[in-house]
Amino acid sequence: MKSSSNAIEIADLVKTFGPTRALDGLDLTVRAGEVHGFLGPNGAGKSTTIRVLLGLLRADSGTVRLLGGDPWGEAVALHRRLAYVPGDVELWPNLTGGEAIDLLARLRGGLDPKRRARLLERFELDPSKKGRTYSKGNRQKVALVAALASRAELLLLDEPTAGLDPLMEAVFQELIGEAKENGQTVLLSSHIMAQVEKLCDRVSIVRQGSVVQSGSLDELRHLTRTSVEATTGRPASGLEELPGVHDVRVTPAEGTGPDATRVTFSVDGPHLERAVSRLAGFGVRSLLSHPPTLEELMLRHYGDRHHGDRHHGDSRHDDSPHGDPHGDLRGGENGDHRDDASRAAGR
Amino acid sequence: MSGAATAPAAGAAEAPATAPAPAGGPAGPFAGTGTMVRFALRRDRVRLPVWLGLLTLTTAASVGSFQSTYPEPADRATVAETFRSPAGLAMSGPERYLDGGYSLGAMTAHQLLGFFTLAVGLMAVLTVVRHSRVEEESGRAELVRSGVLGRHAQLAAALLVAGGACLLLGALLAGTLASMGVEGVTAGGAALYGAASATLGLAFTGAAGVAAQVTPFSRGATGLGCAVLGAAYALRAVGDVGPSAFSWLSPIGWAQRAYPFLDDRWWPLLLHLGLAAAATVAAFWLSTRRDLGAGLRPARPGRPGAVAWLAMPFGLAFRLGRGLTLGFAAGALLFGVMLGSVLSDAEQMLEEVEEMAAQLVGASTTDIFISVCLTILAGAGLAAVVAALTRARAEETGGRAEPLLATALSRTAWIGGQLAFALGGATLVLLAAGLGLGAAGAASVGDAALLPEVALASLAYAPAVWFTGGVTLALYGWFPRATAAAWAIPGYAMGVVFLGEVVNLPRALRELSPLTHVPSVPAEGFEAVPLLVLTFLATGLSWLGVLGLRRRDLGLP
């Protein structure tokens, strides 16, 4: 069984609220020891998934395994091994932050007082203030300290830094790095692309209740078009005939020689090699390539209204709907054909 | 909702950004009040009509029942004499109503005014707090006040809506009573009856406005408002049994001493209006002495860490609920002391009507008085248990249960801690009432044996309280959205206590109230069977509730 190496295994999860289908056949696998980014637009089903994992909501259908157990039936035993930070932290107005931290951590099975003190210091949090006097960011810190002060196997973090300032965001990233070194598994739902790019080993992108892409960032990037900008000694031609190459534009390059040409195009990941070899034949003087940012990957899946109004500095124009890697990456674990692509890219 | 008041907000919405203060519209501290009033009315479009309809209809139904049950002057004379006892007066109103034939009008005012003005006060308190402190506590007020809204607009709107509801209720009551054509229920008296209800509502509207400034918590503000209401009721009960000066300290007493249908004197209502004006001014003044979202006192730092017992389910429930339950207990103790302190007056009064006493069912009349007081005080126990258990729903929808239940705390343990605290706390409220009544009664009549006897008797109501807790939990487990419906139990039970007998409510309907099944100790003998049945039902319903909670989705924000 995979359960020994996977912290979370969700297959075909469905959850409805009345007429709303919040989760519609969601699949998600989080391997033990990895930091897994969980991305998606508002209302895509991220929080619902996490709440199903916590046994707060009951799945309508599908299988959900958390740390090898059933999150609904064995909630209490599993909760001893995980820590959770909700997106909207609500505290008890008449309990102090310190009391809330101790309460949550002790209910989970205790905390390391030294670690608690160190975390309070790093987050610059005053634990003696009453819950209602904390700002959003400070409420978030209370939940983070409570979660990180325990050495839980699994951290379920639902947009945990939404209210934190950049300095605290940096502290959070350090702490997640430490958690990873300690072998803790992290499921990080987030909207902050830089955070995910920095922290996550693998990501899953969820949209309208199902995961549309899952894999490592490299894999995701590879399966999306890379934009290439080159200056060649001779006019580049024939690029548009190559498979997977789009939006070719050839213009005379100024001040670099009589025949020098500036060429820009975008190319699907698996075809990058051939396009670059073709380019080499024209005497490459400069070459610039932009792998897609995570943001671009996300926008690709963020609904139709985002298509067509993207204008990034790298002159990519992928309004045309090709290079869509859904088919390649769906059900991300058995990535046989993806491996071919990876090898091609690796050479 | 005058046009002048709405003009600034409407104008500002249309005005370009370069003209923040629209010409001609006031931009003072009350700017936008009209908009807020309309907004509040929109939010309360079901709630307030239900309140008004329910109060008007039950009043009319009660009067109708008086007319059919006591058609002859002789019938009314008989019932008047049964109320000429300390217990009867504590439950109804001043003795003055009983003189002069006890017309249907006098009966209406005597029997209904005290109880229904309690409900009017409650409506005023809940409405004011809902539109002022609740908004601040939730943080919505911050958003709203960032608009073109004067500093006082929100409180002003809350007071206007609550006050307006009270005035409308007064008009409805006056109109309904006058149009019923019941003999003795005169148009002038009906107008005064309605007006007294309305002005009492205005007084409590003002008081609630003050309560909403004092504490940063909406539950605290509601509690404070209800405490004032309870004190007003207790003072009038004491004044009607003992020295009448106490009644003159109570707005409910003022309403009753307007003597509608009897003397029809209007001037006591001026006391209401004076109190309403003073309290309103105080509320606005206090609101300028504090920050948005804060209470009058600045929040003090607390413990930087939790005590060991906080992480135990009962400990947590205790820590979160102790303020409210202690408030109930203190109120019950005080109410008990007040009623107990007039026990000697009660004895004295009974000697005067010795022949009457002889006709009463075997029991000593002080015992009857004590039993009636305990039944009234049991209402505090019922309310305490519902208040403590409905907190679970607030914790759940407020998002505070979510991180707790994501720990190794099981749902059963979480709700179990709250159930244990709610049942234990409410039992303590009963005991506090019994101790207060017993101690003051013992001191009043010089019989120390009364203290343990009354204290023990108060515990006879515990199974009814537990049963109410069981119903609340069952609702919470299976119909979480309807959890607040559990408040109908204390409401209905008190209705049966105060009016069940006199409006001749059918036995079956009376038995819907758990208090009906409690033996009236010490007036009547102790019966174990109904109490065991109630305890059994309480256990079953609680178990059912836990079962429901364990199998359903949590309602998360």
Number of E strands of chain A: 13
The largest sheet of chain B is:
none
Q: Main sheet of chain A: which strands, in order across?
A: 5-6-7-3-8-9
- Could you give the order of the helices and strands of chain A? EEEHEHEHHHEHEHEEHEEEHEHHH
**Average pLDDT score of chain B:** 90
The 3D shape of chain B can be described as globular
- Under CATH, the homologous superfamily of the largest domain in chain A reads P-loop containing nucleotide triphosphate hydrolases
Structural class of chain A: alpha/beta
Largest sheet of chain A: 6 strands, mixed
Counting structural domains of chain B, the number is 2
* Poorly predicted segments of chain A: 304-347
Q: How are helices and strands ordered from N to C of chain B?
A: HHHHHHHHHHHHHHHHHHHHHHHH
Distance between the termini of chain A: 33 Å
CATH architecture descriptor of the largest domain in chain A:
3-Layer(aba) Sandwich
Q: What is the mean predicted local confidence, pLDDT of chain A?
A: 82
| Broad structural category of chain B | mainly alpha
Keywords:
heterodimer, A: 347 residues, alpha/beta, Rossmann fold, Alpha-Beta Plaits, 2 domains, 4-stranded antiparallel sheet, 12 helices, 13 strands, 26% strand, elongated, disordered C terminus, B: 557 residues, mainly alpha, 71% helix, globular, membrane (chain B), ABC transporter permease (chain B)
